[in-house]
Write a structure and sequence with these properties.
By secondary structure, the chain is of the alpha/beta class. Helix content is 54%, strand content 13%. The protein has an 8-stranded mixed sheet, with helices on both faces. It is elongated, with a radius of gyration of 21 Å.
């Protein structure tokens, strides 16, 4: 079993999917254990960022902790215990709770890296609530982190270091892909990749419905739709070609596909998707103004 585990680790490392941190097995704290924190916790454990025994989590409702039962994390009833045990603290509470939580943990968070995954809460607000010169990084992940296929972006606070950036990059690359953006671009990230899985599921459902309408069984249609979307995405990432160029390769003159693309354009599919991104981004921007 030991040899098999070693071989699996080597294979993951060679494929670029295994994360290696600068210091071994960091102590990671999560304040909040909701729909975003749960996939991150599971993904980081599976991605070898740190073992479950080094994960310290608090959850006000208790539902998130229950969902992670059997994973092996350390559960606490208070935030201060998590902060004291951790080197990196991930704030995964509702946006309206971020500032109160920061004020609560401020006396115990000196010298620790603070990572916020709350949408619509600016770095300046977090830094002010923590006081001093806190090292803060804002991250926008998405739910496919659960299967280590997330798309995340991060923006650095005024006092975050290059080492902090690399630490968070390792954490987030272990559960997918991560890019660095300016904070002014974060609402665009929320609109695109943060909310994006929901758009994809709507499109997947519509594709499957079309397959059923054309005579396929529901199971066949859903399987084909999912693999088609997965294959198209991987094709773009692996070839480096623009999506428009890849679309053109499928469309032959006067053929089935170009007529289908015309139907999509006639129905406003492209504009509807762009509008969805902007609606989400706009909601995030409005939340920032309220903050």
């Amino acid at each position: 079993i030991t040899i098999l585990a070693v071989l699996c680790c080597i294979a993951m490392a060679l494929s670029g999917r295994m994360a290696f941190v600068d210091h071994n097995n960091p102590q990671l704290g999560f304040i909040g254990c909701g729909k975003m924190a749960q996939p991150m916790i599971k993904g980081m454990i599976q991605g070898f960022v740190t073992p479950a025994a080094h994960m310290h989590v608090t959850d006000r409702s208790g539902k998130g902790i229950k969902a992670l039962e059997g994973v092996g994390i350390n559960a606490y009833s208070d935030n201060i215990s998590v902060v004291k045990k951790s080197e990196v603290i991930v704030l995964a509470v509702h946006p309206e709770d971020i500032v109160p939580v920061c004020k609560e943990i401020a006396p115990h968070s000196k010298g620790k890296l603070i990572v916020s995954v709350a949408a619509g809460v600016k770095l300046a607000s977090i830094e002010e609530a923590l006081g001093g010169q806190p090292r803060v990084i804002r991250v926008m992940p998405n739910t496919p982190c659960l299967i280590r296929e997330g798309a995340s972006a991060m923006a650095l606070g005024r006092f975050a270091t290059d080492e902090d950036k690399q630490e968070v990059m390792v954490m987030m690359n272990a559960v997918g892909t991560c890019v660095t953006v300016k904070e002014s671009q974060m609402n665009g990230v929320i609109g695109l990749s943060g909310s994006g899985p929901a758009y994809c599921f709507v499109m997947l459902e519509a594709l499957a419905d079309g397959g059923v309408l054309a005579g396929l069984s529901r199971g066949e249609a859903e399987k084909l739709a999912a693999q088609t979307m997965l294959g198209a995405a991987k094709m773009m990432l692996e070839t480096g070609k623009k999506p428009g160029a890849l679309k053109d390769e499928v469309c032959s003159p006067g053929g089935c596909t170009i007529r289908a693309v015309h139907a999509l354009e006639h129905g406003g599919a492209r504009a509807a998707i762009m509008d969805a991104v902007m609606a989400s981004a706009g909601t995030a921007a409005a939340a920032e103004k309220e903050d």
